[in-house]
Design goal:
The chain has 268 residues and is of the alpha/beta class. It is 35% helix and 14% strand. The mean pLDDT is 96.
Length: 268
């Protein structure tokens, strides 16, 4: 059976510093997603655990009491609205989540592609495509080496354009240069650990001639046995029809089935 669009596991409310629209409330999010026919949602505001040293100035305010401002999450018949977070690996490859806080979240997503943040990647680490490729592999390898409950962990936007925010050409060159052998090893580890791989709506907003470059790492992940989840990464009230259009494009191009879906229902 073809992969069905029934969830969104990457959502930001106005509590994330990158989502300043006051109308981006849990209630507004629930209403829009319910109208789109989604049955599982997860709030994943940016978060750095106050118990973990190494937070950037941008992240330090986004601690646990702050993101709990969305609780209790609203409910609706037939929709499960979960509480999660998007945490971060900083430049020292420290994860902004303590072992004590893991149990507080239904789902945890971790990006390894926020190269635009100076706290994650120094300027000299972005000098060349080769250095960006090294950083990409190093950060993903570090994430997979951590002792985490990967059954409730997702790799956020692995094809994020922020790996080379300066130009689209540089972004595509960086994706193209990622070594297949290293990606195969890492995604094999991800599959064995049970970590979900995100199909991010904005990542999937590619031109037809870019498809093979953008989807290459996802095809490798699929070949290695990974499972995939959907993330809109919305920061403001939005029309879910557009998100579903991007997801559908990726699902069709990757020929994904329900058996290749990462589901929190199974994990929990």
């Amino acid at each position: 059976m073809k992969y069905q669009i029934d969830h969104d596991l990457h959502i930001h409310s106005f509590l994330s510093k990158c989502a300043k629209n006051p109308d981006q409330t849990p209630e507004r999010i629930l209403d829009g997603a319910r109208q789109a026919g989604l049955t599982t949602l997860c709030m994943t505001n940016h978060f750095w655990d106050e118990a973990v040293p190494g937070a950037s100035a941008w992240y330090s305010e986004q601690n646990y009491p702050h993101i709990c401002g969305d609780l209790p999450l609203p409910t609706a018949e037939g929709v499960s609205f979960l509480f999660g977070c998007e945490t971060e690996l900083n430049g020292d490859l420290t994860l902004g989540l303590s072992e004590e806080k893991i149990h507080c979240f239904d789902f945890i997503i971790v990006p390894t592609t926020h190269f635009h943040m100076s706290a994650n990647l120094a300027a000299e680490e972005k000098d060349t495509v080769e250095k960006r490729v090294d950083a990409y592999i190093r950060r993903l390898d570090r994430l997979l080496s951590l002792k985490l409950p990967f059954y409730k962990v997702g790799l956020a936007h692995p094809a994020c354009p922020l790996i080379h925010k300066e130009s689209r050409e540089g972004y595509l060159d960086t994706l193209s240069a990622l070594p297949e052998a290293a990606l195969s090893v890492l995604f094999s580890k991800a599959a064995k650990a049970g970590m979900g791989i995100e199909l991010n709506s904005s990542d999937m907003n590619y031109l037809p001639e870019e498809e093979d470059v953008v989807l290459r790492l996802f095809r490798i992940a699929k070949r290695e046995g990974c499972r995939f989840y959907l993330g809109s990464d919305i920061h403001a009230p939005t029309d879910y029809l557009r998100q579903k259009e991007h997801w559908e494009k990726a699902i069709d191009a990757l020929a994904l089935t329900e058996e290749q879906k990462f589901t929190l229902q199974e994990a929990l």
